[in-house]
Amino acid sequence: MTLRSGWCVWRCTDPASTVAALARVEWHTLGEVCASAPILRPHAAGAFEGARRIGIDKTSYKKGHKYLIVVIDHDRRWLIWVHEEYGKDVLNLFFDELT
Hints:
Elements: H1 3-10, H2 16-23, H3 27-36, E1 54-61, E2 66-73, E3 78-84, H4 88-98
Helix pairs in contact: 1-3, 2-3
């Protein structure tokens, strides 16, 4: 997976035309990029076990009016936690689940 395709996966909640313009690809190519990327889905049972390198990011949807905090395991390419809204309090919910 290239850097561009990885970036497009994160932006799949945005309108295809917006992502295509930002990534400088045709809009019909976007579906192919997202389809060829590794599946990012929540792994509920044992999602945190064995995680060594995680990524935490805030992403918007609904034209930037709603936000999600997303946590992925970089080594396994798993989505391990997601929560609506963002900020210190929301991130603390993630860290509380680790303990």
